[in-house]
Amino acid sequence: MKKSLQLLVSLTSVIAMTLAFTTFDLSRSNGATAITSKVISATSNSVSVQVTSTANGKAYIEYGPTRSKYEMRTAIHSLIKGKPFIFTISNLQAEKKIYYRVRYLLGSKKVFSTTVQAYATTTKVGAEFVFAIQADPHMDGNSSAEVFNSTLAQIVKTNPAFLMDLGDIFMTDKLPDKSEAAIRTRFQYMKSFYDKLGTIPFYFTLGNHDGELGYSNFNTKKYRQEYFSQQTPELAYYSFNTPNSIHIVLDIFTYTTTNPKDDGWQWTLGKTQYDWLKTTLENSTAEHKFVYVHHLLYGNAQSRGGSEKAKFNEWGGLNIDGTDGFASNRPGWAMPIHQLLVKNEVDFVFKGHDHIYVKQELDGIIYQTLPQPSHPGEKISSAAEYGYENGKVIGGSGYLKVTTTSQGISVDFIKHDGTVLDTYTKSQ
Asked: Which of 73, 162, 260, 405 is within CB 3.0–4.6 Å of 266 for a Cys-Cys bond?
């Protein structure tokens, strides 16, 4: 990854991840926390600090290499009540502590207040970076709280930089009672599981049961933003960088405004998101590129299957009968999504939805389907039922541990009891 040579202070659209550093809830005003500040990512030459305030105002960060002297400061940026702002401090030395504090001005105050001192530590150059992925916790009649808690315990034991969940978390569209009380109970219930991650940051990709279907009048987006505001931005598609890597999360539901039919062309990222994806890929200099999606844009509302389906519809360009359909169905679009990913050397597409572990490869991209973290069974019969014709299929519930270095990417499928069921490596 290209190293920055200047101090960069930027507002990013996502919340990144915790590495080897300390985080604090800082500064109190009238008994309430006026400013919360925590380090959310660190590389060998940069640190990012997320600042959230209880009122509108402005803030900057002053920092330095010792406890007693703040030699540098960032620019002043506006704060919006309850909306996280990320300051990224670059041009730092590897494996060094940086001491910092937030200076802030809220409401009608005229004098800047100051948080207590905190610190962060930059990483080694070329150090391993570990993150975790799971998909489809559901926590419905086919799920086990014991299994899910065991998976989360294994994730905490791994201590990844973050956990990415590929959706079907809230399941609000399946609630028999869709009252506000019932919806809030469901969100609180799922939050109680993710709270067990402690300080491990958590991100997610929307699933088809998460209450944000573009073709439904029932929408629970406001509850997601209320209960999980730190985990996803206002938009459900976003990207963020980690050492050597870019992570791109896609939202396949918001812009799909017509209930998908068997021909499959109703599924769409929407032109706005597609253009964002194209620009994000083209502007990235990351060595490793990861894409996260609940399922591929294919077929009817069930949209089952893996790499075999990646050649169809908006994802691959073909009609279901195998004829070319992209130009007529997506006029003005550069190319189908799979071809865009191949052109920009994406390494992985991680997907959920089908509740089974299947590792496949197409045109140099690994299409990795994840099992549930919460199902007590180990069946694999659904792989053939859902159209998987090739790849490695393994039964069991758990999560993926992904490790990146400048040399390559390794993946471990870890069962909820800690057993490693599969391991493989993709070289750079």
From this structure: 260
Residue 20 lies in a domain: no
From residue 412, alpha-carbon distances to 216, 293, 300, 321 in Å are: 37, 19, 32, 37
Torsion sign over Cα 208, 234, 216, 316: negative
295 backbone dihedrals φ, ψ, rounded to 5°: -150, 170
Q: Is residue 7 part of a domain?
A: no
Percent of the chain with pLDDT over 70: 92
Distance of alpha carbon 191 from alpha carbon 169, whole angstroms:
10
Residues 373-428: tens digit of each pLDDT? 999 999 999 999 999 999 999 999 999 999 998 789 999 999 999 999 999 999 87
Which of 102, 121, 140 marks a domain boundary? 121
> Which CATH number does the domain housing residue 177 bear?
3.60.21.10
CA 408 to chain centre: 20
Question: In which domain, by residue range, is 255 found?
Answer: 129-427
Residues ≥6 apart with Cβ < 8 Å to 263: 319, 320
Residue 335 included in any domain: yes
Instruction: Give the number of C-alpha atoms closer than 13 A to the C-alpha of residue 26, restricted to the C-beta side.
Output: 26
SS3 per residue for 166-196: CCCCCCHHHCCCCCHHHHHHHHHHHHHHHHH
* 3-state SS assignment for residue 26: coil
For 139-175, write each residue's pLDDT tens digit: 999 999 999 999 999 999 999 999 999 999 999 999 9
Helices (H), 168-293: 180-194, 221-227, 271-283
